[in-house]
Write a structure and sequence with these properties.
Blueprint lengths: L11 H13 L20 H8 L3 H5 L16 E5 L5 H10 L4 E6 L2 H9 L1 H8 L6 E5 L15 E7 L8 H11 E14 L5 H4 L2 H5 L6 E2 H11 L5 E8 L4 H7 L4 E9 L8 E6 L9 E3 L5 E3 L3 E4 L1 H9 L6 E4 L8 E3 L8 H8 L22
């Protein structure tokens, strides 16, 4: 076989990150800042139970900065970018059920060794006849090159990993490529309140601790639009405090948040706003479903949503979870110009006191029909 000259190659950043997460860090307590262990939000009971079944060795090598559990996961095909020791994969394995599948991709052999070592253990623990989790070695900037098929995943998650890539746009492009139409990228990461200087980017510890490679949150909005995603919708955010005087002096006045965003691969349409009613069928959110920091849907309550949200709900796995109806004074299902809201994660923390929505899950991956606003 001839050598592929276009094959993705390690950059200096990738080499440093693999060394940091494979050899320098051996357990969570080895971290020098709290960027990747930001204050935890209240975790719903069913997720706590799923996490309890994950082997302690896998959990000990976990370096995430948030909880990446979107709703409606039963039967889904999920991809975890930068899956590390596999903690999130094994937790999600239980939520997608035996009929779903979770794929983890990571570039660090030492982390993958830990994840694969406990595959049989977890399948036995969950009572599954055959594995519904697999792990692939590769780069999050080169998913298709690693053998992942285009248009093959319902949902992609990522937990404090995108910031470690030197090419965030390429990560988003590859994620968009392997998502199915209507699919979602739901990810927690570290963001700054301004662009990071080259000096800070070159600091190996700050990069390894998820701060040196942090994206200015406004740049995420720009990159998502360039790639083709819907407007990133902020779910929750927490301020990160760098409890290390030496590193804080280097960072100066920069501030950081760990924030969870969700964005979708849906058609680009000038959709008008809709009035919708939540049907209450999502497991864990039977009475109330908090989609993001802007919208909370209570069962049987009419809510008018902006055009961007209407487009997402009608073209994603959430389509059958809502009833769509005409807006007041209109004979059409949708009657007002779209108005999407951009939320500053730093302002959200101040406004909400770091309060976040509780994740939920349930069976929504089998159907992706739409009923209005096409």
């Amino acid at each position: 076989m001839s050598e592929n000259k276009d094959a993705f190659m390690d950059s200096d950043v990738h080499v440093d990150v693999k060394d940091y997460y494979g050899k320098v860090l051996k357990k969570t307590s080895d971290l020098k800042t709290n960027a990747c262990v930001a204050p935890a939000q209240p975790i719903p009971g069913f997720i706590r139970q799923a996490l309890k079944k994950v082997h302690p060795e896998v959990t000990a090598r976990y370096y995430g900065c948030g909880l990446v559990v979107p709703e409606c996961l039963e039967g889904c095909r999920i991809l975890d970018l930068g899956s590390g020791s596999g903690r999130d994969c094994y937790m999600l394995s239980q939520l997608v059920s035996e009929g779903g599948h979770v794929t983890g991709i990571d570039m660090t052999e030492d982390q993958l060794d830990v994840a694969r070592m406990y595959l049989d253990y977890h399948m036995q623990e969950f009572g599954y006849k055959k594995p519904n989790v697999s792990f692939v070695q590769g780069y999050i900037e080169a998913l298709t090159e690693a053998g992942l098929e285009q248009d093959s995943f319902d949902t992609i998650i990522s937990n404090c990993v995108v910031n470690l890539s030197p090419d965030k746009k390429q990560v988003l492009k590859e994620a968009y490529k392997v998502l199915k139409d209507g699919g979602e990228l739901y990810f927690s990461d570290v963001y700054s309140n301004g662009r990071i200087s080259e000096e800070i980017k070159k600091h190996k510890v700050l990069w390894g601790e998820c701060l040196g490679g942090a994206l200015w949150w406004e740049d995420l909005l720009r990159l998502a639009e360039e790639v083709g995603f819907s407007l990133p919708r902020l779910v929750t955010a927490n301020i990160i405090t760098v409890q290390n005087t030496e590193l804080q002096d280097i960072l100066g006045d920069l501030k950081f948040v760990s924030a969870t965003y969700r964005m979708f691969k849906v058609p680009k349409r000038n959709t008008e706003s809709c009035q919708i009613i939540y049907n209450g069928n999502i497991t864990g959110a039977e009475d109330s479903f908090q989609f993001d920091s802007q919208y909370t849907f209570k069962i049987n309550e009419v809510v008018e949503v902006d055009g961007e949200m209407a487009n997402i709900l009608t073209h994603s796995r959430f389509a059958d979870e809502f009833t769509f109806q005409p807006t007041s004074g209109s004979s059409k299902p949708c009657g007002v110009k779209p108005k999407a809201l951009i939320v500053d994660p730093f302002e959200l923390v101040l406004k909400m006191g770091a309060k976040s929505p509780a994740p939920a899950t349930g069976g929504c991956c089998s159907t992706q029909s739409a009923s209005c606003c096409k």
